[in-house]
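Tokens for chain A. Residues wanted.
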């Protein structure tokens, strides 16, 4: 038997640093990831998909946002989907799950709104889903405790589905805190967890899948973009886990110290190598320091700020090198252009916008050697 484990879709997520066009693309891609998860399940022969919470990013999504993931799952009727609430979308009286229950969901989607077992596949007793339902954003105590006493037929595969922290990822280390040995205590073949946005194996039977579409610069090497294919040879056998790529975008951080034009060119070559096939999939947060002369700063502005800023999905520059200029540089200009350059030079040492304007003015006026 095989299942696919995913979590933390966070449909409707807002990326405050992104412009409107980029925000729209990032939000749409979180929906597109559902289709990639479904096709992965179908390709690898998974009988069901376990979604371990945070399907939505907020407790009160708009009606369209509420319905969108349901319609995406409806398009794959051969895939069984099992969903639980998370800390972003807990099951409250006015929350998304109550609204979905009233609206109705596709036949191939199971909403787990009580701590009660449910067959993994309708009509089969071979596998059972044991959910932990969050009714508040922060619940005191272990939400998975009830799994210990959920009965299942003898010899059946027991699959836990929960959302919370095993190692205290959040600032509130007492909320939604799951016992690290819950799989052993409850006799689970596998415990599918959500909350952490990167892949993390807690033990041989307990795993965080991570978000299917990466969503942050600070996630490190396990920053999401995968679902977990889990294969079972029997209810007591250890599961075999395989990370299946389903994400589109690549999030990176980079740092550089720049003092020469050749270093700017080397940085450009390195950054273009982040995704040689499609730079539009890259979101980059760049921190640069150092000092560049006018010619080299103009090269930075042309190759990095404007060039890669147009190639990448998003280029976020946290810091930039300073610009240095000598009186001889300004003397290469004349007339009103020279006067403007002199005024910008006076401000450039403490104003990155003035520095960029000076470099552009210098390049446009033909001042570059």
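Reply:
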């Amino acid at each position: 038997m095989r299942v696919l484990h995913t979590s933390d879709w966070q449909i409707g997520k807002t990326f405050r640093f992104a412009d409107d066009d980029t925000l729209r693309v990032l939000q749409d891609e979180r929906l597109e990831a559902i289709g990639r998860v479904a096709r992965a399940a179908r390709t690898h022969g998974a009988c069901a998909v376990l979604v371990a919470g945070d399907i939505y990013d907020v407790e009160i999504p708009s009606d369209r946002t509420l319905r969108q993931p349901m319609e995406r799952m409806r398009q794959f009727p051969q895939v069984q989907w099992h969903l639980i609430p998370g800390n972003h979308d807990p099951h409250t009286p006015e929350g998304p799950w109550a609204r979905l229950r009233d609206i109705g969901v596709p036949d191939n989607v199971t909403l787990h709104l009580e701590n009660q077992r449910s067959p993994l596949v309708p009509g089969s007793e071979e596998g059972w889903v044991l959910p932990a339902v969050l009714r508040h954003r922060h619940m005191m105590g272990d939400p998975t405790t009830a799994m210990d006493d959920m009965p299942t037929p003898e010899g059946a595969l027991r699959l836990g589905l929960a959302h919370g922290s095993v190692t205290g990822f959040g600032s509130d280390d007492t909320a939604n805190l799951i016992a690290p040995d819950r799989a052993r205590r409850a006799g689970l073949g596998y415990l599918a967890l959500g909350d952490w946005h990167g892949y993390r194996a807690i033990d041989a039977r307990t795993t965080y899948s991570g978000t299917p579409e990466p969503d942050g610069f600070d996630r490190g090497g396990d920053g999401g973009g995968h679902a977990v294919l889990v294969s079972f040879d029997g209810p007591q056998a250890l599961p075999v886990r395989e990370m299946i790529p389903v994400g589109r975008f690549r999030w990176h951080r980079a740092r550089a110290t720049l003092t020469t034009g050749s270093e700017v060119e080397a940085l450009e070559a390195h950054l273009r190598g982040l995704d040689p096939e499609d730079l539009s999939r890259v979101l980059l947060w760049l921190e640069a320091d150092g000092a560049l002369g006018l010619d080299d700063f103009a090269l930075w502005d042309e190759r990095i700020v404007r060039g890669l800023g147009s190639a990448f999905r998003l280029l976020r520059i946290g810091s930039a090198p300073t610009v240095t200029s000598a009186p001889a540089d300004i003397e290469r200009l004349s007339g009103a252009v020279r006067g403007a350059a002199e005024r910008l030079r006076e401000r450039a040492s403490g104003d990155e916008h003035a520095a960029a304007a000076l470099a552009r003015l210098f390049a446009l006026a033909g001042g570059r050697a």
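The longest helix spans residues 20-43. The first strand starts at residue 2 and ends at 6.
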